[in-house]
Write a structure and sequence with these properties.
Order of helices and strands: HHEEEHEEEH
Helix content: 25-40%
CATH architecture: 2-Layer Sandwich
Largest sheet: 6 strands, antiparallel
Radius of gyration: 15 Å
Structural class: alpha+beta
Number of domains: 1
Distance between the termini: 25 Å
CATH class: Alpha Beta
Oligomer: single chain
CATH superfamily: GAF domain
Bound molecules: methionine sulfoxide
């Protein structure tokens, strides 16, 4: 399969309709977690011009381990309750950070990052599977509409991965 560059709608709900379709399209009928998340991180990075890192951290015991991603090399382990990712796990909800320097305990991976969003992915049992993490070089890049849209993307992934 070859990647076809598409133009995303400006309007957020329509944008996320297309993003979810693209994530499903490039899963290509596969439910292998690495294949699905690798292509999902590529689709997401392509769709957001202001995003410098997009990828997954996966629950492993009481910590998160680095999963498929696009961007600069990143920290490989994050304990539950630490950083933005581990805090999203502890709270069991998405976190939108307008300026990472103002988030106490933020774990810096790329010094160009200003804002970040972390969206949890859950198994049907309610247990955390992992988190989708996105960073931007622009302060306050992620809005409330993005949180809603990316939670829809996370639901799409939960379905594709058969969680
Ligand atoms: N900033 C994250 C760490 C991962 S990098 O952003 C890729 C955090 O504070 O959990």
């Amino acid at each position: 399969m070859s990647y076809i560059e598409i133009e995303y709608p400006q309007e957020k709900a329509a944008f996320y309709d297309v993003l979810c379709e693209q994530i499903a399209l490039y899963a290509d009928g596969d439910n292998d977690p690495v294949a699905v998340m690798a292509n999902a991180s590529a689709v997401i990075k392509q769709a957001f011009p202001g995003v410098n890192w997009a990828g997954f951290y996966l629950a492993d015991g009481n910590r998160l381990k680095l999963g498929p991603f696009q961007g600069r090399p990143a920290v490989t382990r994050i304990d539950k309750g630490t950083g933005v990712c581990g805090t999203a796990w502890e709270l069991g909800e998405s976190i939108v950070v307008e300026e990472v320097e103002c988030f106490e305990g933020h774990i810096a991976c790329d010094c160009n990052t200003h804002s970040e969003i972390v969206v949890p992915l859950f198994r049907r049992s309610g247990e955390l599977f992992g988190v989708l993490d996105m960073d931007s070089v622009t302060p306050a890049y992620f809005s409330e509409d993005d949180r809603v849209g990316l939670e829809r993307a996370a639901e799409t992934l939960e379905r594709l991965l058969g969680l």
